[in-house]
């Protein structure tokens, strides 16, 4: 009796071509639709490597095998009046974290020194706040020129909601980029925060854009959002013209009551990174907070879709030792981009 056997080689071509067709589409300048982006997130695990191969084609076209490194400085911790449900620094958080006002000049300069030593291209100055007060604005305006003169770093400021005037002042003092994450899709936003709106965040990004600075904005995966919410956010970021997109994965923190959080697998994290790459093909995609916990041993695969990452710790959680990041980049055959080599979208 004879029987028909599945042939892996024969079956591989249609599977691979499904995702390569999306890569062809975006490389030809035709944006992914929301439906197509949803298909990426719903990719079967058995097709994951084929999907990553397609995402890597797009990543390599725009960014070669370069990896840009970022270092975060939590310049003001806790003491925030907002109720963002995912955040250990919110007014509702019971997490045991350091709480302090904006750091001194010497500490901010020392953070810049560490960023330079770790081959980071960008130094991110972050404060917990609804928006910066005048003292905080003046501290940033004073320190940024010093940092740029001494270390030549690209400066990203994350100061909360900004007015048009504040954005203009940041541009004038030398800030290159402002981070203000959308965090999730518009339809899901009121489930994670009630003290400000999704529209407030979009308005801040528009103020940054009008001031002539680069926009950095991304989201957090694992807050009970749907695939449609993630796709909606990715398309919004694309349409706003955001330059850099950090993709965070929710880190459960004791004392932070995030009722909608859900487990995400390493495979789903990789699909999310691939979706952002294909929706926003020429934008910097950064593997951000939670990569160590959620991607685990699959972290290196994330860099086939993403082209940047944080090195060192995050705001109130620990990252892995920088040496492990450097080794991972070397093992992939990738290279850390220097300031002189970096290109801006």
Provide tags for this entry.
345 residues; alpha/beta; TIM Barrel; ten-stranded parallel sheet; 10 strands; 13% strand; globular
- The third-level CATH topology is TIM Barrel
Q: What structural class results from the helix and strand content?
A: alpha/beta
Unreliable runs, pLDDT <50, ≥5 residues? 1-13
Instruction: Estimate the strand proportion.
Output: 5-15%
Number of strands: 10
Number of helices: 12
Rg: 20 Å
Protein name: Biotin synthase
Function: Catalyzes the conversion of dethiobiotin (DTB) to biotin by the insertion of a sulfur atom into dethiobiotin via a radical-based mechanism.
Family: Belongs to the radical SAM superfamily. Biotin synthase family.
Catalytic activity: (4R,5S)-dethiobiotin + (sulfur carrier)-SH + 2 reduced [2Fe-2S]-[ferredoxin] + 2 S-adenosyl-L-methionine = (sulfur carrier)-H + biotin + 2 5'-deoxyadenosine + 2 L-methionine + 2 oxidized [2Fe-2S]-[ferredoxin]
Structure report:
With 345 residues, this protein is an alpha/beta fold. The chain has one domain: TIM Barrel (Alpha-Beta Barrel). It has 12 helices and 10 strands. It has helices at 8-27, 34-41, 48-63, 105-117, 134-151, 164-173, 198-211, 227-240, 266-279, 291-294, 299-302, 322-332, and strands at residues 66-76, 122-127, 154-158, 177-179, 214-216, 219-221, 244-249, 284-287, 308-310, 335-336. Strands 1, 2, 3, 4, 5, 6, 7, 8, 9 and 10 form a 10-stranded parallel beta sheet that branches. Helix 7 (198-211) links the parallel strand 4 (177-179) and strand 5 (214-216). Helix 4 runs parallel beside helix 5, helix 6 (164-173) crosses helix 7 and helix 8 packs parallel to helix 9 (266-279). The radius of gyration is 20 Å and the shape is globular. The model is unreliable at 1-13 (pLDDT under 50). Pfam families: BATS, Radical_SAM.
């Amino acid at each position: 009796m004879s029987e028909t056997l599945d042939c892996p080689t024969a079956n591989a071509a249609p599977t691979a071509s499904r995702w390569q067709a999306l890569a062809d589409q975006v490389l030809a300048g035709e944006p992914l639709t929301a439906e197509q982006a949803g298909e990426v997130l719903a990719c079967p695990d058995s097709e994951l490597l084929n999907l990553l191969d397609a995402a890597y084609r797009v990543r390599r076209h725009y960014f070669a095998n370069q990896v840009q490194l970022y270092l975060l400085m939590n310049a003001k911790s806790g003491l925030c009046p907002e109720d963002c449900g995912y955040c250990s620094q919110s007014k509702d958080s019971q997490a045991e974290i350091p709480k302090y006002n904006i750091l001194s000049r010497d500490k901010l300069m020392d953070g810049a020194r560490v960023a330079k030593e770790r081959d980071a291209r960008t130094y991110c100055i972050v404060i917990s706040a609804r928006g910066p007060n005048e003292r905080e604005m003046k501290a940033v305006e004073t320190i940024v020129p010093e940092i740029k003169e001494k270390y030549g770093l690209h400066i990203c400021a994350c100061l909360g909601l900004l007015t048009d005037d504040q954005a203009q002042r940041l541009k004038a003092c030398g800030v290159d980029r402002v981070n203000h994450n959308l965090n999730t899709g518009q339809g899901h936003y009121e489930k994670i925060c009630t003290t400000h709106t999704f529209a407030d965040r979009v308005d801040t990004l528009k103020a940054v854009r009008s001031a002539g600075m680069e926009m950095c904005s991304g989201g957090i995966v694992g807050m009970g959002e749907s695939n449609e919410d993630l796709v909606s956010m990715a398309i919004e970021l694309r349409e706003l013209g955001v330059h850099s997109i950090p993709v965070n994965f929710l880190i459960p923190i004791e004392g932070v009551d995030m009722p909608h959080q859900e487990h995400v697998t390493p495979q789903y994290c990789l699909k999310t990174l691939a979706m952002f790459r294909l929706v926003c093909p020429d934008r910097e995609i950064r593997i951000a907070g939670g990569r160590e916990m959620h991607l685990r041993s699959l972290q290196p695969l994330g860099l086939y879709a993403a082209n940047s990452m944080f090195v060192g710790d995050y705001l109130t959680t620990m990252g892995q030792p920088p040496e492990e990041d450097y080794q991972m980049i070397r093992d992939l055959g990738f290279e850390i981009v220097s300031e002189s080599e970096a290109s801006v979208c």
